[in-house]
Amino acid sequence: MAITPKWTLVSDGCWQDSSSANPVYFIVNIEAPDGASDPQASATKGSIYVRPGTTDDYSQWYMKVADNDADADWQKILVNANEEAVTFEGAVTMGTSTRFQVRDATLYIYSPAASTGAIALGASGDVWQIGDQASSNYVEVDFRGEASLVGTARFNSRNAFEIFDDFLQQTFTEADTPWILNSGTDPQAIDPAITAAECGVLLMTTGDDDGTTAVDAVQIVGHIPVQADSSGLVFETRLHINTAITNVSVFAGLTDVTTLEEPFSNAADVLTSNATDAAGFLYDTSATTDEWWMVAVDGGVDDAGCATLGTAPTADVYQKLRMEVSADGATINFYIDGTLEDTLSGDTGVSPDVNLYPTIVVCGDSTASKTVDVDYIYVGHNRP
Questions:
Q1: 161-179 pLDDT, tens digit each
Q2: Is the pTM of this model over 0.85?
């Protein structure tokens, strides 16, 4: 009785599984597999390629995972003590009892029972601990999301300069705060003041006279400067316009002076920079497009990318406005409620070594006094 061989030698170093409905190859070659050349190109998915003579501890095995005649069709099979970088192009799913060993037998990332989040805890009562457990010095995060410091563990904020004001004071006294309070000459334009509202709120009230900054505007501005070249510069605030989003302008961001000034204005979608150096969010109902705009000016030259962000405020609904500035001042990211809306990049941005002050400026357009609630203001960067 004739026996059909399972494997057939089809060329030097290449065997074919000739008895299979979907024949695969077993190939031995000292070069890396070339997806466009035979026998590699003729091999079907599931074929194995062995490359002897590679560096010690590096993988010498490849498997064909696609039939596109491309080098990327051949992917390395992981082996113990593999020292090469490994890239996964798809999701990696772990079973409930598996784990990644990060360094040695005492440090692991475990697979959670329910895979919610990048690193998730297991059942109720579990904790995630980061640090030296043997010495009882670690940060512990429990299943409720609460973080605790154990032993001598400490949060280190000494390497960052930060101002965060949640406006918790009973009375807002300028000299006792990091802020300078400015207001126009109209009697209804009054300095920002604490209002008794949930979580602490700063109330900004404009005048109702002629709509100019000098008369109707109200401003809070920091008296301590920040600079982009310290790296990691961030401005963030959470605010809403009260009652109606009409007949008002709001600027939130960074500017170069601490006296009363609207860094930018917008009339019929034409921007005017009043500051020499500034960057931030602008909402101005004198514009044709009544939405938040991203704006920046460097040394009196407006960034050519200044534009609408496509998102408008809603009356009495808080929005979180966040701006991140690169160390060279050339790239500025604008986020609204955690979503990156747009980026100013490649033009002027802001000067990296110019003093900038966090600020919010509100101005009415003379028809009525307008109010804005500010929940908090944050600004920070790396300590130079």
A1: 999 999 999 999 999 999 9
A2: no
Q: Domain check: are 69 and 182 in the same one? A: no
Instruction: Looking at the structure, tell me whether residues 246 and 167 fall in a common domain.
Output: yes
> Mind giving me the DSSP string for 289-328?
S-S-EEEEEETTEE-TT-EE-S---BTTB-EEEEEEE-TT
How many CB atoms are closer than 10 A to CB 264? 27
pLDDT tens-digit profile of 100-131? 655 554 445 554 443 333 444 555 566 777 77
> b/e string for 17-32 if b means 16 or more Cβ within 10 A?
beeeeebbbebebeee
What residues are paired with 219 via a beta bridge?
182, 361
Burial of residue 199 (number of CB atoms within 10 Å: 0-12, 13-18, 19+): exposed
Rounded to 5°, the CA angle 157-158-164 comes to 50
Domain that includes residue 123, residue range: 99-150
User: How far, CA to CA in Å, does 215 sit from each of 209, 261, 373?
Assistant: 7, 11, 20
Radius of gyration over alpha carbons of the chain, in Å?
31
Please check whether residues 348 and 226 belong to one and the same domain. yes
Report how many domains make up the chain.
3
CATH at residue 284? 2.60.120.200
Looking at the fold, whether 131 and 189 belong to one and the same domain comes out as no
Same domain, 109 and 249: no
CA angle 196, 243, 247 (to 5 degrees): 125
- Rounded to an integer, what distance in angstroms lies between the CA atom of residue 249 and that of residue 95? 54
Structure tokens at 305: 């990318």
